[in-house]
Specification:
- The complex is a heterodimer of chains A (193) and B (150).
- Helices cover 68% and strands 0% of the residues of chain A.
- Chain A is an all-alpha fold.
- The radius of gyration of chain A is 19 Å and the shape is elongated.
- Chain B is an all-alpha fold and 150 residues long.
- Chain B is rod-shaped and about 115 Å long.
- The chains are: A mainly alpha (193), B mainly alpha (150).
- The interface between A and B is large, with 58 and 43 residues.
Chain lengths: 193, 150
């Protein structure tokens, strides 16, 4: 975490804690995208996601005095959002991860070929739709890790801070999820599988 | 959830990981997809799809409404209405009691004319004095808390 962002975090947190007009609204505006991406990707239900985002920021407001600047404010708020979404899924008994791969199941790598038409794929709306459907079908934790890495452009240590997962586990989720998406993509494009 | 069964990767998987990361870097740099490496180009498509904003978003006024909600919750409860209603209720009770005493007092006040307290209560001017003191107390309350009468 660089010094400039630490100072910006500190200014914003101090302003919220002393009740400066507009400070909390600014904090919400700065981090609502991150919360939405984490929670929406985890729960997938827009109404629930909105309520959980609201719950996240109310919790942030309530506990901000406990923030000790040990991580970036972004990671701290992301951690609150992730834990609230996680608890929601656990309450609803929704599996967070796919079952461990069976030894007999072939690796997706074995199914991939090199001879499909990517020129066509880049402009094909159906392909994009299929990819988005495949992203939605991933387990919640993989979906969220992918979104943090690709859309939020969070680094692996930042994702580790938010999710509490080890860096190796995060890389493993990224690897397997992207490989699965590649398999789905090439399957849709008619590659021999 | 902190198990990591796959990292570090075997060679094939390490090449796959490298292609995934290279495609991500090229996608972020906005480089045109190049012919020749289908694996890389597949991952470019995947990276492109993953970088797209979500279809649904929070309402545009989400931050403002939430900040207002927090501000309302932090403010002490506004009890002016309750206070005013209480003052009105007490005033109405005092006035109706006084009116009842003036109208019907002649019938039952003489029955109180037993002992000192009874004799005192039987005097209409004692009731008038009590009413004056009550009104005086109320008017002082209003003067001290002008915001509650707004």
């Amino acid at each position: 975490m660089d010094e400039r962002s630490t100072n910006l975090d500190r200014e914003l947190v101090d302003a919220v804690l002393r009740g400066a007009p507009g400070a909390f609204e600014r904090l919400v505006r700065d981090y609502q995208g991150l919360c939405w991406h984490i929670i929406h990707r985890m729960v997938r239900h827009p109404e629930d996601a909105r309520e959980l985002c609201q719950e996240t920021f109310l919790r942030v407001h309530q506990c901000l005095h406990q923030y000790r600047y040990e991580s970036a404010l972004k990671s701290w708020i992301g951690q609150v959002a992730y834990s609230i979404a996680l608890r929601h899924l656990q309450r609803k008994r929704i599996p967070l991860l796919e079952p461990a791969a069976d030894g007999d199941v072939p690796s997706p790598l074995e199914n991939l070929g090199d001879d499909f038409d990517l020129e066509q794929a880049f402009g094909d709306a159906q392909v994009a739709l299929g990819l988005h459907a495949a992203i939605d079908a991933l387990p919640p934790v993989q979906r969220t890790v992918l979104t943090l890495y690709h859309l939020e452009e969070a680094s692996i240590p930042e994702i580790a801070m938010i999710t509490g997962l080890a860096s190796g586990t995060i890389k493993s989720h990224l690897f397997r999820a992207r490989l699965r998406l590649r398999t789905v993509l090439e399957g849709r494009l008619g590659v021999a599988v | 959830m902190n198990h990591d069964p796959r990292f570090p990767l075997p060679d094939d998987d390490a090449r796959e990981w490298s292609a995934q990361e290279r495609a991500l870097a090229e996608e972020r740099a906005g480089l045109a997809p190049q012919a020749g490496d289908p694996q890389l180009r597949s991952y470019r498509l995947v990276a492109h799809a993953l970088a797209q904003p979500l279809d649904e978003q929070l309402p545009p006024d989400f931050a403002r409404r939430l900040a207002q909600q927090v501000e309302r919750a932090a403010r002490p409860a506004d009890t002016r209405l309750e206070g005013n209603l209480l003052v009105l209720l007490v005033g109405a009770m005092v006035l109706s009691g006084l009116a009842a005493t003036l109208i019907y007092g002649a019938q039952w006040l003489p029955s109180l004319d037993q002992g000192t307290a009874g004799a005192l209560l039987a005097k209409p001017w004692v009731w008038a004095l009590a009413a004056c003191l009550g009104l005086s107390r109320l008017s002082r309350h209003w003067l001290q808390h002008p915001d509650q009468t707004a």
